[in-house]
Design brief:
Blueprint lengths: L10 E2 L11 H13 L8 H16 L10 E3 L2 H12 L5 E6 L4 H8 L3 E6 L8 H14 L4 E5 L11 H14 L2 E5 L25 E4 L13 E5 L4 H4 L12 H13 L1 H25 L4 E2 L7 E5 L20 H10 L1 E2 L1 E2 L10 E5 L4 H11 L5
Parallel strand pairs: 1-11, 3-4, 3-5, 5-6, 6-7
Antiparallel strand pairs: 2-8, 7-8, 9-10, 10-13, 12-13
Helix pairs in contact: 1-8, 2-8, 3-4, 5-6, 9-11
């Protein structure tokens, strides 16, 4: 999708796919399944949860994945929708921190819930006062409001600290707001930051997490995800209809399980490359777009560029699909043949920004930013 959406003269640094070959243990497992003729209905849900539990224990020192209650769902966003159906009602308010991953808007609204934004601080971190105000409004307008948390945050690449997440849990409990955390980027934390699973913080007992190996191991085409619940939310999670588990593919469950169990050496090598690319992006921005605003991300492989100093306005259009272009993203595509994600799609606060996927070769990054230096408002 990344390389086929635009003409061949366009360098695509937009959708969150990486230009890497998959981990060998994953491809070996999929080849073996094909050789065995093992292409039937999905199996291995418990093994998938056990693989995530082991990874969380080794990587984050967290022993909180309850294998017995974890639920397999088709992918992270569809899993979030299913959890929203459990704890909210049509018309209820779902709060998000803007700017944020565009499907948070689209999937929530498609499920007949109303999205309300709580703007991030200018440094891209959670504004607890703004969040509390949004929660108060959501509680006044809804019987069962919820909060979708991107942990780490997309598009800014901020990795929330334990203190920030504890504050989120505290204010959510104060206003009776259920938290659903999207932790799909959790393994992609770069040097200088530490990932904290949301369910590990004080006050998150009634929260949920939906995650998968998709982003870290580049597996978006083989779908399978897991929904987890805090101790007080287990009974809610058990109400997910049995037919939801029919959505993931057998190859998805298999690939994600193997990624968590045998894919850490590959992940470590990837993180080394992403760290080097993060440093390169910082140098390239300074050289080719010196007035643009850029804070190197704590995690993910996404760079969030503030192009307002380049002369682009910050008007926020209606959030839309990540492929919808406006403002600087449209200018970069039309003038320099570089495809980026348009900031307006990420909601209020995204106008005048672009998101850059730096999970590609350094040669492509260098060529892209060299081209981008010629953009004009």
């Amino acid at each position: 999708m990344k390389w086929r959406a635009y003409p061949s003269d366009v360098l695509p640094l937009w959708v969150a796919e990486m230009d890497v070959m998959p981990a060998e243990p994953v491809t070996a497992a999929l080849r073996s399944a094909l050789d065995l003729g093992d292409i039937g209905y999905p199996s291995g849900a418990r093994e998938y949860a056990e693989a995530l539990a082991g990874f969380a224990r080794r990587r984050w020192g967290w022993d909180g994945v309850d294998v017995d209650t974890a639920q397999v769902v088709p992918d992270v966003m569809l899993g979030i929708v299913e959890v929203l159906k459990l704890v909210t009602s049509p018309g209820d308010t779902v709060v998000v921190n803007t700017p944020v991953y565009p499907p948070f808007f689209a999937f929530t609204e498609h499920a007949d819930r109303r999205v309300a934004g709580a703007r991030l601080r200018p440094d891209g971190r959670i504004d607890i006062e703004a969040l509390a105000s949004a929660f108060a409004d959501a509680r006044a307008a809804s019987t069962t409001p919820a909060f979708l948390l991107a942990n780490p945050h997309n598009p800014t690449g901020v990795v929330h600290t334990v203190d920030e997440l504890t504050a989120v849990a505290s204010v959510a409990r104060e206003y009776g707001v259920r938290v659903i955390a999207d932790e799909i980027h959790a393994p992609l934390v770069l040097p200088g930051a530490t990932f904290t699973p949301y369910l590990s913080v004080d006050g998150a007992q009634d929260a949920f997490v939906v995650t998968s190996a998709s982003k870290a191991w580049n597996l978006p085409g083989v779908k399978a995800a897991l929904a987890l619940a805090g101790p007080s939310a287990v009974d809610d999670l058990r109400r997910i209809p049995e037919e939801v588990s029919h959505g993931p593919s057998h190859f998805g469950v298999l690939a994600h399980t193997v990624a968590y169990t045998d894919g850490e050496p590959w992940l470590d090598a990837l993180l080394g490359g992403l760290t080097a690319n993060r440093e390169l992006v910082e140098r390239l921005v300074a050289e080719h777009l010196p007035t643009a605003g850029f804070t190197p991300p704590d995690g993910t492989y996404l760079a969030w560029l503030d192009c307002r100093p380049l002369g682009f306005d910050d008007r926020d259009a209606t959030p839309g699909a990540v492929a919808d272009l406006a403002g600087p993203a449209k200018a970069f595509l039309d003038q320099t043949r570089v495809a980026l994600s348009s900031g307006h799609a990420f909601g209020p606060g995204g106008g005048g920004h672009v998101r850059v996927n730096f999970a590609t070769s350094q040669a492509i990054l260098t060529e892209a930013f060299t081209r981008m230096s010629g953009v004009r408002p």
